[in-house]
Every structure is written in C-alpha cells, then in structure tokens.
Amino acid sequence: MSHLKLHGTWCLDKNISDDPDAILNLQGVSWLVRKAIRAASMKLTVTFRSESMEFVMHTMLTGGLTGSSETRIPDWVERLHKDNIFGDVLVRCRFVPGELDAGGNKWPQFDMQSTFYREPDRIEAEEFLKNFTSSVVPAQEKEGRKDSFLHDFVRNESAGWTAEQVWGLDYIGSQKCLKRRIVVTGGGKYETAVFVYRFVE
What we know:
Number of helices: 4
Structural class: alpha+beta
Low-confidence stretches: none
Helix content: 10-25%
InterPro entries: Calycin (IPR012674), Pericyclase_pydY-like (IPR053037)
CATH superfamily: Calycin beta-barrel core domain
C-alpha cells in the first residue's frame, strides 16, 4: 500500500496561513507564549519509519522557544504525549481516503470526532475540515491511493479542549506544500485555522 508522503522539511508560510492566536488562546496558552509563537519562524521536519509505520514530527521555533518532537502511529490507538506547550495530551491518528470530485479535487473522508453544543457549529466545523481540496492533483496521486490524508484527534482532559486536524499535500503553482486544517473546541466555543508549510527539502 502506498503512503502519504509527508516526510521532509517544511517551513510555515505565514503570508498564506491563518493567525494561530485564537486557537492557542482556546487551548489555554498564555499571552506571552502566544506572542512569541506568532513572532517566531517555524520549521517542521517529518520522518517516516516504514518498519514501524511511525511518523516523527519535530517542530523547530526561533525566538528562544523550545521545539517539540512527537511520534504518531496511524493506527487510531490513543496514546499519551507530553508537550512542552500544551501539557499532557491524548493523541490518536490514522490515514483516511480522499474522494475526487468532478473538478479533480480531493476531499478527505472521515467521521468527525469533535463534540459541539450546537448542531450548526458542528456542520460548519466539519465542512471546514473537509474543505481540503487540492487545486492540482498529480496523476499518480489520483489512482490507487487509500491514504490521501492524515487525520488526528487530540484531547487535553485537564484543560478541557480538543483539537481535530487533517494533514494533506497540495500545490501552490508548481511548488509542493503541506496543509494542516485544524478545529479546536473548548468551553462551548470553537476556533479554526489553516496552516501552510512550503517544502524545503
């Protein structure tokens, strides 16, 4: 089976990404740390261990902030991760398929895990997460791929928030990029954001 090729080094493009302040605030991150994160440059290095089916994601931040490393196994089993910014969180992830529409765009197919107090909020959030079309889908990506996206769900039980994310590849012109769409819920509220990482190497 072919796998989503996330491995490589990616640099966050702030010019075409959303401001992270609202989702970080909902996750209980202090104003000073949020300010530092917004000012920092971010680089994401992803390695894939084929023998164990593990993704290792290492985030590097400028401005004196400590980066983080996280191992994700796409088997939908919940595991504890100790994060230096978000604290103890429970994480599970999986590959999910993409469905091609008439325009050649791919939409991720999965059951949403986040809980909402209002049904209109749930519908709006789900549409946001799944509105993950690729403006250009190479021919080799269109056929035979059952793992077009990485879907993960993160819970912080002590802080009372969840974060649901979809990762996938896209192209801006001829340049490959990695997109992450995220919905954070907590305290009866929710926030959304899209982050775009350009491929470095």
